[in-house]
Amino acid sequence: RTARPEMRPAVRGLLGVWTAFLLLAGTGALLLQWLGPPAATPIRNGSSPARRPVQAPAAILPRLATSQPPRPAVRTGIAAPDPDLLEPAPGLPGRMLPRIGANGNKPSVAYAALPGPPARGPQVAVLLEGLGLSGAISQDAIDTLPAAVSLGVSPYAAALDRPTPDPLLEQARRAGHETWLCLPMQPAGSPLDEEGPQALDPAVDLAEDRRRLDWALSRLQGYVGVTNALGGLRGDRFANSLAFSIVTTALASRGLLYLDAGTAPHRTAAAMPAGLARHADLTLDDDPDAPDIEARLARLEQIAVTQGSALGIAGPLRPVVIERLRAWSRDLSSRGITLVPVSALPPPHPVPAPHDTASVP
């Protein structure tokens, strides 16, 4: 039926609206077909799809960062050599000797490794000597051993001949390893066994021994003390001579510790003032074989349980010693024993056994 003339404009308007709607719908359908279906978010184990975190606007991020409370400063590594704790070595141009600072600060305190939180229960310390003689092995020890393992530096290391600081010592310091100077002293087997041309020797006059002592003490800086452990020897011939008194006097006046590598104190080392000296409880690598080293480390733990603390000595540096120390230290804390730097080791004190009736009130 034909619309009346007065209705024709309304019909034409309605047809225009539907025509526009159909064109838009067709265009949208073609666009969706071209884009394809949306990527589905995988749902695993029946969980809801993960939501993207809401990202704060870039302008707000700096304000969020600065609004956080500041973290407390944590000291890491060992302090760098302090000029106040050094003095020129007489007769050795360009070399410096350790000394007690003007404010009373001692190298044995300034360069000691931080022991960490107070340890409860038995404590053990290990000194590994021979650092610097082999660059590759020394680097492995610095990089892979716990920071609590103390390192003894050989005065014969070639890098110490240069006027610039030894990079290995700088790395050891940054890694937190406490360093000790290995003092060359003639052993009981001399002259078959020798500690090198600068070894302290009771057969030479005291003036020459003092010169050799200054030579050794000035080879490096930033160490807490000295030890008679060097190259697997213990320097016991000189350590048990009257000439050893020059070492005792020098260490006391310069604020340094002494670590006697013998499992029984040397006669003169035992006479040192309290707190200045400590002797080793066990040599860990008399037989540089992995099973024997493991057995000795187990024995070191037993000594620590019995007397409260224990000190083991190893060296010279060998890959098998480093590897066994690394494996042993991994789960040491799970056995209730804490590894500490040598300077943090408390004096040994016997711990009564459970069956000890003397400990029962």
Q: What does the oligomeric state look like here? A: single chain
DSSP, total strands: 11
Low-confidence stretches: 39-75, 350-361
- Main beta-sheet strand count, sense and barrel state: 9 strands, parallel
Report the total helices. Answer: 10
Topology (SSEs and partners):
Blueprint lengths: L7 H28 L25 H7 L18 E3 L7 E3 L8 H4 L12 E9 L3 H10 L5 E4 L13 H8 L4 E4 L23 H12 L7 E3 L8 H4 L5 H10 L2 E4 L16 E3 L2 E2 L6 H18 L1 E6 L4 H12 L7 E2 L22
Parallel strand pairs: 3-4, 3-10, 3-11, 4-5, 5-6, 6-7, 7-8, 9-10
Antiparallel strand pairs: 1-2
Helix pairs in contact: 9-10
Walk me through what this model shows.
It is a single chain. The longest helix is centred in the N-terminal third of the chain and has 28 residues, at 8-35. The protein has helices at 8-35, 61-67, 107-110, 135-144, 167-174, 206-217, 236-239, 245-254, 290-307, 319-330; strands spanning 86-88, 96-98, 123-131, 150-153, 179-182, 225-227, 257-260, 277-279, 282-283, 309-314, 338-339. Helix 4 (135-144) links the parallel strand 3 (123-131) and strand 4. Helices cover 31% and strands 12% of the residues. The model is unreliable at 39-75 and 350-361 (pLDDT under 50). With 361 residues, it is α/β, with parallel strands linked by helices. The protein starts with 7 loop residues before the first helix and ends in a 22-residue tail after the last strand.
